[in-house]
Amino acid sequence: MQKYDELQIAIDTARKAGSILLQHYGTELDIKTKENNTPVSNADHAANDFIIKNLTAHFPYPILSEESVDDKKRLHMEKVWVVDPLDGTKDFIEKTGEFTVAIGLVENNQPILGVVYRPTTQELFYAKKEGGSFREVEGKPQKLSVTTTGSVSDAKFVISKLDSKHTGYMDRIGAVNRMRVGSAAYKICKVAQGEYDAYFVIKSRMSEWDDCAAGLILAEAGGVLSDIFGNSLLYNQDNTSRTRGTIASNKNLYTNLLQKIDPIAKEEYSSL
Ligand code: IPD
Ligand code: CA
Ligand code: CA
Description:
The chain has 272 residues and is an alpha+beta fold. The chain folds into 2 domains: 6-143, Fructose-1,6-Bisphosphatase, subunit A, domain 1 (Fructose-1,6-Bisphosphatase, Chain A, domain 1), CATH 3.30.540.10; 156-268, D-Maltodextrin-Binding Protein, domain 2. It has helices at residues 6-24, 42-58, 89-94, 164-172, 184-193, 208-220, 251-268, and strands at 31-33, 39-41, 63-65, 79-87, 100-107, 110-118, 123-128, 133-137, 140-143, 156-159, 177-180, 198-201, 224-226, 246-249. The protein is globular, with a radius of gyration of 18 Å. It starts with 5 loop residues before the first helix and ends with a helix.
């Protein structure tokens, strides 16, 4: 018998980490630039320290976190937590309110539970494999399902801050309805919720911790997550970076989108 409920502990941990982030939100942050040229703040570290401490207190599983040293011992373990203590650090710094805590649990390289929490709206997204996915606000869980839009020109796309190249690609495939939202995990959850039809990045800076929890939430809502060539994504890998882009979509749009993206993907990755 398992002593603690994994989903409940993951939810509690994400909520408390979210409160820690809010304590730092709007204060003067200590911001550093990491080797990959992305910012990290004392808020990222404070949330991370709490998550590591709390998950370790309850479970013997190793933790892959964006803000912890990866000793790779996890590679030999069946179950591994995959954590982004603050997804959307730039939005956190710019105070847009669009940032999340993401906690996934992986078993044999696939997510089996996922929790994404946005502290500024207290929106909680969660899923358990084969148990459906839910969005809970003010204690009311709502079961999630993706949209059915199949046409790229009709679809609503949730996007990151785009460079001109990606904007050009979106124009080229006729993906004209676009809305910018922060946090990759949150964007994927918003596709799961049916607020948008799809999200894709041809060349992303995403890593396992960005799409682990949210990817399961999307799959359990009937959506699909893959790289932009249509390959499914694996977790607890040696290389944690998503090196071939990311697409998160409702099922009806997915194949049409892949087909339209295919020539662009081939151009972008022709040198590989
Ligand atoms: C980033 C955010 C951003 C996405 C990037 C991610 P971070 O994560 O989710 O929205 O466009 O690809 O790396 O660095 O804020 O945890
Ligand atoms: Ca992230
Ligand atoms: Ca992060």
